[in-house]
Write a structure and sequence with these properties.
Elements lengths: L2 H20 L1 H55 L5 H6 L3 E2 L6 E2 L2 H32 L1 H17 L2 H20 L6 H25 L3 H9 L4 H12 L1 H17 L2 H6 L17 H8 L8 H33 L1
Antiparallel strand pairs: 1-2
Helix pairs in contact: 2-13, 4-5, 4-7, 4-10, 4-12, 5-7, 6-7, 7-10, 8-9, 10-13, 12-13
Length: about 325
Amino acid sequence: MSAEQRTTLLQQGTTVRAGQMRNPATAKKLSDRFHINKKHAWEEKAGKLITAVCAGLLGLLTLSILYFIASRGLATFMVDGVSVSQFFTGTKWDPEAEPGQFGAVAFILGSFGVTLIATLIAAPLGIGAAVYMTEIAPRFGQKVLKPVMELLVGIPSVVYGYVGLTLLVPFLRSQFDILGFSLLAGGIVLAVMILPTVTSVAADAIATVPQELRNASLALGATRWQTIRHVVLYTARSGCLTGVVLGMARAFGEALAVQMVIGNTLKLPGGLFDPSITLTSGITLNMGNTIPGTPYHNALWSMCLVLLAMSLLFILVVRLIGRKKGAK
């Protein structure tokens, strides 16, 4: 195309656009389109600004909570002069004595003990229920079991604790000739509480396993149970483990339900049937009876800091499991 032809075409296009602009209907359409585009651009900028402010406030709130708990919790060691070894290995807890005793081993062991018992009970039950809901009877699982799990999630923790206090503690007392308030009672109550979490997360993980893997396993001659065990559960193991870790995180931080059935004694438990105490129970029972700024008060904040550190550890484990699954 020569230069003269290009010039002619440009002049014709300019003439056509000018004619369109002189047309009132066309000019109105172009004006409306311009205002609509401008409005959309403003809405997009406003949306970005609002979401950025929300994310910033959330991050600021998280950092503020971390700083507040850390500053209060570390005051026990940096201001009151309590040694870290005494706090984490000492067996005597008497902050009001002279000098004060700040051994938190009974609280820490109690928290880990009930969490371990609850996990050992809830993990196989939850994963087994998830397999039944997704592989054995999916219709029944969706219509009956899933609503039951949702109902268990909605029950307040105080109800779990009161049921355990009314039924479980007397049952253990009559069957084993013990006090009834024990690590086992706290672990069983927590197992029921975290069971919906483990079940729902494991069921979602199992449901994401491709059907082609099941078909290939069955085509190779594997039975249904062999397929579930060696193919389905193996493929969904990261998701199932995530559900277990999330359940452990909830169990470790639960306060009221465990406090009602565990006995709340400062003695180190000698077995499953002995009463004990947890970090959350110790905090809720004593925080309102202490004076802010005293070593006793700061020691309770140190226990809060231990709970926070464990929660962050659980979150880190979940992230690592998810990253490992994504890498595969």
